[in-house]
Amino acid sequence: MGVSLSVDNFENMSVKIKTVTKQLPKYSRTTEEIIPFLDAWLVGQEERFIRKVKKIFEGAAVDKRYSIMDPIAVFTKTSFEERNNIYVREVIDLGEKVLEKALKKANWNPEDLDYIITVSCTGIMIPSLDAYLINKLKLRQDIVRLPVTEMGCVAGISGIIYAKNFLQANPGKRAAVIAVESPTATFQLDDFSMANIVSAAIFGDGAACVLLSSHQDEEGPEILAEEMYHFYDNIQMMGFKLTNSGLQMVLDIEVPETIASHFPDIIHPFLEKNNLTIDTIDHLIFHPGGKKIVQTVETLFSDLEKNIDDTKEVLRLYGNMSSATVLYVLERIMDSKPKKGEKGLMLSFGPGFSAQRVLLQF
Questions:
Q1: What residues contact residue 86 under an 8 Å CB cut-off, 6+ apart?
Q2: How far apart are CA 285 and CA 344, in angstroms?
Q3: Is 239 left (phi over 0), alpha (psi -120 to 50) or beta?
Q4: Which of 109, 197, 276, 315 is most buried (CB neighbours < 10 A)?
Q5: Cβ neighbours, 10 Å, residue 153
Q6: Burial code of 323-358, b = ≥16 C-beta within 10 A, e = fewer?
Q7: Residue 164: pLDDT above 50?
Q8: What is the Cα–Cα distance from 256 to 56, expressed in whole angstroms?
Q9: Does residue 1 carry a pLDDT above 50?
Q10: How many whole angstroms separate alpha carbon 19 and alpha carbon 113?
């Protein structure tokens, strides 16, 4: 006998996050240890400018960052090809390690996966990361794959949204979202613009993996709802410009203010659609875009007695690792063992300009 599934069955299909893991690259430096490299990089610049750059690094609320390259290599002039080759090699290594770690933590076998989504915007590789992971871990030959390459910081949540939609339509399936980013591979040695300096001060490298399932007996927070929100006429706010020396950061100074102006439209209607208010949210799982964005969001929530301490702590410990960062915040929240029935709101921002949200119930 076949199983008949109506539209209502699909809508009631529970999708859960089984586990989240992280993987950090082999090199790391504290902000204090980075300062001497700035002296060498900024030789010949005006003294006032040098002081300003150091102040940006020291005031970025990032104590430490990890990198796929030694700092000497980061501050050495190389071609786009050489940097991208390092990116490809290291992204494959980090992706393999973080997926293996996640599968082990979930007690799943590689062949249990039905869907693999890989997320990265800080380098270029074809075939994409997922193809390498299929070979290295011997994932199934009929696995469905989706590489997400051009959504920036928001793409960790994008991957969860795509996985959720796939799993809701396909009961009894399992998916992996793997985000691997190396913003340090995009650092431009000859670019002394504020966009390049600020991004160098706040960004770090890292990888994360989320495993999701539509098996109804699975444990983990359930995804109750998800939604994207697109800001009109703000394409210039954030992104990368492809230059002969690599991917050059585009970062508008108005990003925090733009987010703040849209914030009520991003948060409240989404919660209202799910018969909730911000008061009923127990855990704020926000992408730490940078100190100013964190302060902006914190100010908007301070009156509601809500904190984003985990977001601030991830920024302090690792910096902004683009798409992977919000998944580090999610891991911290899940490791804190929220009470049954508590609700979490995931939120990240990225190029487009875009905000994306996921509502969780623990």
A1: 68, 69, 73, 185
A2: 7
A3: left
A4: 315
A5: 29
A6: bbbbbbbbbbbbeeebeeeebbbbbbbbbbbbbbbb
A7: yes
A8: 16
A9: no
A10: 14
Mean pLDDT of 90-97: 97
Q: Does 85 score more than 80 pLDDT?
A: yes
- pLDDT digit string (tens) for 282-334? 999 999 888 888 888 888 777 677 788 899 999 999 999 999 999 999 999 99
CA distance 160 to 101: 18
Q: Write down the pTM of the prediction.
A: 0.92
- Tokens coding 224: 């109750």
The per-residue pLDDT for 154 is 92
Residue found under tokens 């913003």: 183
Question: Which pLDDT score, from 0 to 100, does residue 251 have?
Answer: 78
Number of Cβ within a 10 Å radius of residue 294: 22
Supply φ then ψ for residue 347, to 5 degrees.
-150, 130
Burial code (b: 16+ CB inside 10 Å, e: under 16) for 220-236 equals: bbebebbeebebeebee
Q: What are phi and psi of 158, to 5 degrees?
A: -55, -45
CA-to-CA distance for 155 and 239, rounded, in angstroms?
13
The structural architecture, per CATH, of the domain 10-213 is 3-Layer(aba) Sandwich (3.40)
The answer to whether residue 9 scores a pLDDT higher than 70 is: no
Q: In the predicted model, what is the mean pLDDT of residues 341-351?
A: 92
Per this entry, what is the length of the chain? 362
Under the banding of pLDDT at 50, 70 and 90, the label for residue 11 is low
Residues of each domain in the chain carrying CATH 3.40.47.10: 10-213, 222-361
Q: Which two tokens stand for residue 280?
A: 């009923």
Say which amino acid occupies 329: V
> Using an 8 Å Cβ cutoff, are 212 and 164 in contact?
yes
